[in-house]
Automatic annotation (TrEMBL):
Keywords: DNA-binding, Transcription, Transcription regulation. This is TetR/AcrR family transcriptional regulator. SUPFAM superfamilies: Homeodomain-like, Tetracyclin repressor-like, C-terminal domain. It comes from Pedobacter punctiformis. Residues 5-65 form the HTH tetR-type domain. Residues 28-47 bind DNA. PROSITE patterns: HTH_TETR_2.
Amino acid sequence: MTKAEKTRQFIIEQTAPIFNMKGYAGTSMNDLTAATGLTKGSIYGNFLNKDEVAIAAFDYNLSNVVSRIGAEINRRTSTQDKLMVYAEMYHQFLSGNFAKGGCPILNTAIDADDTHPVLREKVLAAVLAWKNGITRIAEQGIVKKEIREDENPAQIALTIIAMIEGAIMIARLTEKTDYWNLIMDSLKKYINSIS
């Protein structure tokens, strides 16, 4: 990496948690300079504007999530175990052990829905990729006869995503992790019911 590439990567790594916690609108240039210890000019010397930093930060946060979940799925053998990885890994968002600030998909979707079309498109692509990944697992589960053949793989994927993201939102909003546990218990029952 060149010095400029290292600086750019440093800025992304230092600001990614801030964008994830405060959102695009809530993150100020002062937040970025405080997190990096760099001047505004140094940040703008590496990025055109705050938008470009926010997009790079989202990509960084998402890449971390996807790679960690993918690695864990690859360690599992049964379809049910692979599907349960999502519930297990996303539970870590509540404790802050996964990505500081929580789920970057949920956070950015809410923050950028009406205010930032480029980020909204990135989040949409992330959700669709997530849906497609779970759909492939479900399709393979049907082939392996671990999921009933009358089940709809896309419906399975959307149900899992909705339950996980809904559980995160409810648990964070109410500050009751037992609500997360209740919804995840329902998710486990759902996953077992499709086999």
